[in-house]
């Protein structure tokens, strides 16, 4: 049975209802069809309703014009957290949001993932964030980039050298390669505010882990790193494990889901947890498990070193052999969707946001 979705005209009625309501401070209309028509009414609502601090407009068929209207409305509002995920505002709309951040002094978290941002707008965000002291978390996932020079990553790396307020940066599907990761790591020697770095779904290999492992020896700020869906292999995992074993005592969560790591690398990471008392969350599903891997993580869970809620695997025994099954835990399992049962903000499924609670939905 098809589900009837909220349209732009429907949103007009909703906005009029909310316009003078002093008790509602959050609005979630994700996965509807409000389009640019609804974006116009959302912009009007933002200009009149000063109690709203959270709006989720993700995947609502909003285009560049709608993005422009909302960005201009944010010049003077009380909004703290905006999700525009999946609305194709493109480079033009992204430029208006970047310009808005030069003026806005209340917005703490902005999600522009999957919005088809272009190189120009990503660079504009990097430039603006060297001065903006309010934004604590920003998502720039899956921009539309051309070229092989990691240009956007170079600019974001420069931003991290200058910005001492940003706590959360998401650069998933950003075409980051080892050279780009080096620029980010060089910046992290100087940055003392970033707590959550997401570089999942990129083109990073084990060579890039040399740079990350080196900076983690001295960086005491990073608490969550998402490296999922990069080709780290055993060499990359071992580089990380050596640093986590002997040097780093600040990282709390590491995700290496589907990183082409085999038994040797996975066991090395498990060994680092035995000597590192701070690393509490590790996610390894999608790699190649051998019996030694299964035994190692089963042992960590059984001895209480690794809590079942803090990993995405669960041991089970068949015919005297230990295996690992997948569990629906992770750093951001509910980024695109929330379950129809249970707690939608479950800590075990959204550990990244629980460990670094920047601009949580209120």
From TrEMBL:
The keyword Transmembrane does not apply. Keywords: Repeat. Transmembrane segments: none annotated. The keyword Repeat applies. This is Leucine rich repeat containing 34.
